[in-house]
Amino acid sequence: MTVAEVVRHLEEVAPPGTAQEWDNVGLQVGSREATVSAALICLEITDAVVAEAERLGAELVIAHHPLIFRPLTAVSTDLPLGRLVERLLGSGIAAYAAHTNLDAAPGIGTAAALAELLGVADGRPLLGDEPGLGLVGERAGTGTVAEFAACVREVLRPARLTVVGDGRRQVARVALMPGAGGDAVVPAARAGADVLVCGDLTHHDALEALALGLAVIDAGHYATERPVVHSMAQHLRGRVGGAVDVIESSIVTDPFAAGEG
């Protein structure tokens, strides 16, 4: 199969046209006509991920986070991004990104993948219409914010949790905004959520959540988005598995993990 044929199956559920206008998605390095026998699925492309692709013989890397996000004025191999582009081209590896269009993809997006792991059902978009960003749904079973936080920590290992709000509060409705989720505080409260699970919560986001009576579990950008790697891989295996080996990256790219020993 070609790069174009493989990514077409992802674009059917995550059309590039549904990405936010500030985003940069699609093929970022390589040729759409290149032949693919193995594709590596990852959250983001780093030197370690490229080395993994080289070792596994993958001709295509599909990432959630764009390798090239801001417009390039030069490809300088003195800088990390330029070196990554050079290495990918030199190894004959194409790089493709599905970012906010994947966030909004029903069934396989970042929020849908997180909801499946956390037992959140009957989900609907938290921001916007279909396709929309985030998700709000009902939690299976009962329990408090503190108990739900313990569940989040266990399911998303390794996850570093920060919890805002009353840990004794009962949780029935859950809002999810994987990745940078501070902007979801007000929509989550308006949706009647008892708790919001997100990443990258700021001091002022936390104060606003307290004022609105909303509990928040900040499980980190990486941990809340990592489940989408499996979701993407499973989707592609169901469509190209007979022709292309679809591999989930084993590399932990969480930049904060190194300090944990």
What does this structure look like?
With 261 residues, this protein is an alpha/beta fold. The protein folds into 2 domains: 3-102, NIF3 (NGG1p interacting factor 3)-like (Udp-n-acetylmuramoylalanyl-d-glutamate--2,6- Diaminopimelate Ligase, Chain: A, domain 1), CATH 3.40.1390.30; 110-225, NIF3 (NGG1p interacting factor 3)-like (Udp-n-acetylmuramoylalanyl-d-glutamate--2,6- Diaminopimelate Ligase, Chain: A, domain 1), CATH 3.40.1390.30. Helices cover 34% and strands 20% of the residues. The protein contains 10 helices and 11 strands. The protein has a 6-stranded mixed β-sheet. α3 links the parallel β3 (60-63) and β4 (94-97). The termini are far apart. The model has no long low-confidence stretch (mean pLDDT 94).
Secondary structure blueprint with pairings:
Blueprint: H1 3-11, E1 26-29, E2 38-42, H2 47-56, E3 60-63, H3 80-90, E4 94-97, H4 100-103, H5 110-118, E5 120-124, E6 135-139, H6 145-155, E7 162-164, E8 173-180, H7 185-190, E9 195-199, H8 203-212, E10 215-218, H9 221-225, H10 227-240, E11 245-248
Parallel strand pairs: 2-3, 2-11, 3-4, 8-9, 9-10
Antiparallel strand pairs: 1-4, 5-6, 6-8, 7-10
Helix pairs in contact: 5-10
Structure in a nutshell:
This protein has 261 residues and is α/β, with parallel strands linked by helices. Helix content is 34%, strand content 20%. The strands form two sheets. Strands 5-6-8-9-10-7 form a six-stranded mixed sheet.
Low-confidence stretches: none
Order of helices and strands: HEEHEHEHHEEHEEHEHEHHE
State the secondary-structure class.
Answer: alpha/beta
- Average of pLDDT: 94
Count helical runs. 10
Taking Cα atoms only, what radius of gyration do you get, to the nearest Å? 19 Å
CATH homologous superfamily title of the largest domain: NIF3 (NGG1p interacting factor 3)-like
Which percent bin holds the helix content? 25-40%
Q: What is the first-to-last residue Cα distance?
A: 41 Å
